[in-house]
Amino acid sequence: MTKEERIKKRYNAEKRFKLYGITSVVLAILFVVFLIHVIFSKGSSAFQKTTINVELNFTLDSLYLDPNPSKDDLENVEYYDLAIESLLKVYQVNGLKEEKALINLFSPDYEYEVRDFLIKNPEFINKKTILKLTASDDIDQLHKGNYPRHLPEDRRRINDFQLMMYDKLVEQNKIDKIFNNYLFQKGDSRNPELAGIGGALVGSFFTIIITLLLSFPIAIFASIYLEEFAPKNRVTDFIEININNLAAVPSIVFGLLGLGILLSTFDLPRSTPLVAGITLALMTLPRIIIPCRASLKAVPPSIREGALAVGASKVQSVMHHVVPLAIPGTLSGTIIGLAQALGETAPLILIGMVAFVVDIPSIPTDPSASLPVQVYLWSEQAERGFVEKTSATIMILLSFLITLNFIAVYLRQKFERKW
Amino acid sequence: MISNNIKIKTQDLNVYYGEKQALFNVNLDIHSKEVTALIGPSGCGKSTFIRCINRMNDVIDICKIDGSIKIDDKEIIDNNVDVVRLRESIGMVFQKPNPFPKSIYDNISYGPSIHGLADNKSDMDKIVENSLKKAALWEEVKDRLDEPGTGLSGGQQQRLCIARAISVNPEVILMDEPCSALDPIATAKIEELIDELKKSYTIVIVTHSMSQAVRVSQRTGFFHLGKIIEVDTTEKIFKNPGNQMTQDYITGRFG
Amino acid sequence: MSEISHIVKSYEEELQNLNDNLIKMGSLVEKQLSDSMEAIIKVDKEAADNIIKNDAKINELRAIIEEQIVTVLVKRAPMAIDLRLTISTLKISSDLERIGDLAKSVAKKIKPLPHDLPEELIASLRRLGDLVQRQLKDILDAYLKKSKDLAIKIWKTDEKVDDLTHTAMNEVADFLGKDKKNLDLATHLLFVTKNIERAGDHITNIAESLFYLIEGEHIEGARPKGKDFDSNS
After folding, report:
1. Which of A304, A310, A323 to mutate to test the interface with B (most CBs of B within 10 A)?
2. pTM of the predicted structure, to 2 decimals
């Protein structure tokens, strides 16, 4: 082979290599775009809900109220009659069967929606108003265009009469799409139109806070001690190897640990952010310690020597000089560790976070859901309404993770650029 | 020029890194208020030696020292010696300039503040100013004391480190190849500074540059394989060394 | 001196080259001196012309050596033995050049001399010339071998040179005393004698430089002095 040929071959190999690289990057981007497209196209509609305008007349008679009712009175009276009466006025129906069909256009919570409105706006007593009541899951999907209305009647849950009513109501402009406040306010529900991720959000928040409070200080002190103070001997080598191993242990093992020790031995309450937080803290610890140690190690020894040489003690040299320089790396490591914990599902399933929890937790020992588990739960549901909810939850979870990662990148770049 | 006050006296100093012995029975006197240069091939133990003087080797777990180093007749190779106090009186300047990634002012004020040498801000300002003046850096940085020390040029950084060492009023300044990362002009400035500083401080400098040893020092010690081969006045060492090995080393014949 | 050679080979070569040139210069000077001694004894005016002409070669070599030394100083910043070698070589080359000059001025004095020099006048001069030639040869040997002992021996022998000079001068003075008409001739011979003695002094200088080169110290004690012609009169 002549020299020219060899050089040409070399250049060709280089070009080929670049081509492989570009191909992989393009493929990766395509996958991500596809994933995001699927999630967004399925999930974005969940941020809206379908409502039906109902005219309500809050007369004292219809509510069995005395004049000038107190707030307690408003909370305790029966709204069912008023609600049903008003619903039935939306469309002219005859007979129980048709009435039932009409009522089924609404979500089962119509009574509470009426009540909540009045408690919030007591000035409407003795006044008429038009309220946008949440439509049922099927109407919601129908209105969003996801319902197969061309199917024969016996194969759909919405019958022909209901379809007719829906079309009429649309003609009368009585059906609207508004922002879905339930998505963020409500806990889980059997009815997709009433299900929200409020409980999961609060549960995830409590979990992450507990994880942070537990793992961050422990990880920081452990890594500072191991990196700066611990003698290098077999014991510390052993610890180091084990930390690296722990970081690689599948998360479900930590779930089993939580189940076996926290729930069985210490008898902590099941399905609570407290247990989830502790379990995830255990899982996250090595994942924070490793980047913390790496960023401590990255601080040049000359800084330590400089401090020691002017007579700083070991602790002073570490606390005044090394740790401040390692903070950006430490923080971004912690945030990435927390982001992983936030997305973790398997250990939470084991410690019972899969329970069906309607109430939004107010303290970390209340049973609760969490975002990734909510995704898991809803993805198993048959109702169409849950499909878009699942995607919406994934969108929210992803946006949290991306935000956390951006913060980590930002911290790292900002502090590293400064000096 | 040659003083006869012995500031640092080492006797039978042996240093081990784990199994490996780094210094063998080093006996060396360092005279007060003059510059002692230590020369020798890489790995000959000269850096190890000066790191014994301020007990910097304590940082290394596997380092074991035995023998005696007396500073002003006080033994320092002793577990009862407070290394923090020791290092306050023995400053050190390193091979690579290592200013703290803080402002110029904070670089100087750090030492005095941890030792409580200043009662108030104006005291501290004085210390900072004096230290920078002694390090011949004041004129260049007086208008930008709050700028990061790492933004200075290499030579200025090294003088900042010298100022930092001076700030805690040491008696001895150890310099571990202070000019090896600097250009000739910056080197000349540091050498001029060393000449100035030897009036007030005892200086020990490790250097790979023979000509630098000749220029700045009054005494020179030649280390080889962890042993001190020859110590004498610099003039003697470089004009007519007593030991063949020293001669072979400084004339560039080392086998 | 040192059995180990420099790590930088070209440095070693430069020093070797310097050494070679000095030896070459030394042998040229040696030849000039012996030629001039022979010429004066034979009163060979043709040889004298050659000697005068050849001095230029010595000066040329001296310039080359000086240049080489400056180069070594700039390039190598020599230390210790190397430093002493270059400095001493510089001094030795200067002394050799002076000896060459002296040989030349001896040759110049031959022209006015009559062909029939009285034997008694030349006897001491010849012995003096032989001794100085011997000294020069020895000192070049000593330089080649870097022999300290030889250098000291040569240094001490200068006393003998001085004594012989003294004797030779006395003889010329006696000759002058016999007949004032001999003044011209006597003056020339006195100059020649003095020149040879000064060549001897330069050889002593070389011995001192050589001693410093080898030992790094100066020879102890005052320079050996014979009876001086001037102080004796």
Report:
1. A310
2. 0.75
